[in-house]
Amino acid sequence: MIIADSFNLELSIPTNQVPTRYSDTVSEANSVIDLIFLQSRSNKLNNHSIHSKWQLFSDHTSITVFIPITEENIFTSKFSIAKNSEEKENFIKDVSFIIKSIKVTNLSNIDKLKDATNSLALGIENVWRMNSKQVNITRYSKSWWNNECNLALSNYKSTRSLEDWKSFKNKVKSSKHSFFDLKILEIANKKRGPWELMNWVNK
């Protein structure tokens, strides 16, 4: 009990007071030797149920605990800046200007340091909002997906022709090859090790 308490756990109280082990020997009594420890002082996770009818061929019966799962908001869009775009260049230029404009000669106390960091964070956030745009997260939201893939897909959707479908697939294939060839080259030049390269490829 002391060890369980050190992990913020406490002995769970079953919803039905029945044995958890059923003896095959007539002279031996059934007993409760299977214990459950749950989160201490929890209103939702504080007891368990013993199912004596689920024993089957085992001398121990089943025990269940209902774990509540809260709802999770799954975002279907995000703000992003396209790679190798004019917005990316503007973002880098504006952030560089903000960093250069920070006055660091008068950081004599904690409050002034906090003011400087807050000003930096606010400036970068404003520049991000100015240059980024909201995009939908779809199954095409891959690192290798580019504007050429968008154009090829839009062209196929408008014509629904077999030739445009083949053109779209070829564009996707070439975009993938270009992207991964560049990544492999970057890792090979930077890490100069086969294990790092294989680890990234396996991902």
How large, in whole angstroms, is the Cα Rg?
30 Å
**Roughly how much helix do the residues carry, as a percent range?**
40-55%
Strands of the widest sheet, in order across it, are 2-4-5
Main sheet summary:
3 strands, mixed
Mean pLDDT: 81
* Oligomeric grouping of the chains: single chain
SSE-based structural type: alpha+beta
In N-to-C order, the SSE pattern is HEEEEEEHHEHHH
| Poorly predicted runs | 197-203
| SS element count, helices | 6
**What is the domain tally?**
3
What distance separates the N and C termini? Answer: 43 Å
Describe this structure in words.
The chain is of the alpha+beta class and about 200 residues long. The chain folds into 3 domains: about 1-65, no CATH class; about 75-135, no CATH class; about 140-203, no CATH class. Helix content is about 45%, strand content about 10%. The chain contains 6 helices and 7 strands, in the order αββββββααβααα. The strands form 3 sheets. It has a 3-stranded mixed sheet with strand order 2-4-5, with no helix packed on it. Helix 2 runs antiparallel to helix 3 (about 110-130). About 0% of the residues are buried. Residues about 195-203 have low confidence and may be disordered.
